[in-house]
């Protein structure tokens, strides 16, 4: 632990001291339990193992210059877990239980919250699984809610440097009226063929298109997509993308900077017209996009190898709020004390 090289941490799993568990049985949630085991004991017929009754969240704890630890919009993550779990017919943890569990796991693993300016953060992964046995396809009666913590560096190795991505035409992560708008594990399994192919060809991730027509942009790997042109922040509207809390925050910040915001279907052909493009999410923060390869047209959209001025401005402002460097005028930050 003393030897953690904070500045060079990958986005990966590192063992921490404790995680939190909470069981839903007989129609009610129990007490939060602290565990030091990295393993979970599950019934062999648990619905999560067979029918994918699993949803999760991702958020980060940031250590400020003042030494204090902050969470960013964690109640929004709590609400999204309720939305995701409800869609999969699961019992979901109440908002306050979620927030208490997240704060507790941060506190218990305080020594793993990376120092200010190291570029690393403590990543928190709340997850909810159907734990009861069923053999027919139906919702579990019992659930297990857990939160683990692990210190991470940037999701894309480059950090705040442009990444190259590739459009995927031959697979979909979610169906038009499917689960794309909720954060369930199945979406990520379905995204693997495209992600593996993108990596194999040297791209950081894949850009998903709408599953019906392959005409509009959906998402960019585990992040939302945005484009900038004419002082306007443009981001796709679609039923099959995850409502990103980062994206929602960038929209507010862009408006605050006097920019116009458009949330609407974005055709692939519009990529030609953007001055800047980027991927945004908790793990990705803002990952500027350098090039987008379109294998169908055998065409490359090139946004340059320097980060654009608008992406830089938004990134700087978002980070400053998350780390407590500027006043939290939107009430987005919650202290862990
Ligand atoms: N889209 C997908 C598919 C994701 O997995 C994530 C990450 O959670 C996001 C977008 C970004 O969402 P957020 O900004 O809430 O982290
Ligand atoms: C996040 O941004 O927190 C995510 O959950 C993305 C992830 C699947 C790595």
Considering the chains and any ligands shown, give keywords for the structure.
nine-stranded antiparallel sheet; binds 2-OXO-4-methylpentanoic acid; 18 strands; 6 helices; 337 residues; alpha+beta; globular
List the helices and strands and how they pair.
Elements: E1 19-25, E2 28-29, E3 33-35, H1 47-51, E4 54-56, E5 59-63, E6 69-72, H2 74-87, H3 95-108, E7 121-130, E8 143-152, E9 163-168, H4 185-200, E10 205-209, E11 217-220, E12 223-229, E13 232-236, H5 245-256, E14 260-264, E15 276-281, E16 285-294, E17 299-302, H6 309-322, E18 333-336
Parallel strand pairs: 9-10, 9-16, 13-14
Antiparallel strand pairs: 1-2, 1-3, 1-8, 4-7, 5-6, 5-7, 6-18, 7-8, 10-11, 11-12, 12-13, 12-15, 15-16, 16-17
Helix pairs in contact: 2-3
2-OXO-4-methylpentanoic acid binds at residues 58, 188, 222, 281-283.
Descriptive overview:
With 337 residues, the chain is α+β, with helices and mostly antiparallel strands. The chain contains 6 helices and 18 strands. The strands form 2 sheets. Strands 1, 2, 3, 4, 5, 6, 7, 8 and 18 form a 9-stranded antiparallel beta sheet that branches. It has a 6-stranded mixed beta barrel with strand order 9-10-11-12-15-16. Helix 2 crosses helix 3. 2-OXO-4-methylpentanoic acid binds next to loops.
Mean pLDDT level: 97
Low-confidence stretches: none
Secondary-structure element pattern, one letter each: EEEHEEEHHEEEHEEEEHEEEEHE
Number of helices: 6
Given helix and strand content, the structural type is alpha+beta
Q: Which value, in Å, is the CA radius of gyration? A: 20 Å
Range of strand content:
25-35%
Sheet having the most strands? 9 strands, antiparallel
Strand count:
18
- Backbone shape: globular
Proportion of residues in helical segments: 10-25%
The small-molecule ligands in this entry are: pyridoxal-5'-phosphate, 2-OXO-4-methylpentanoic acid
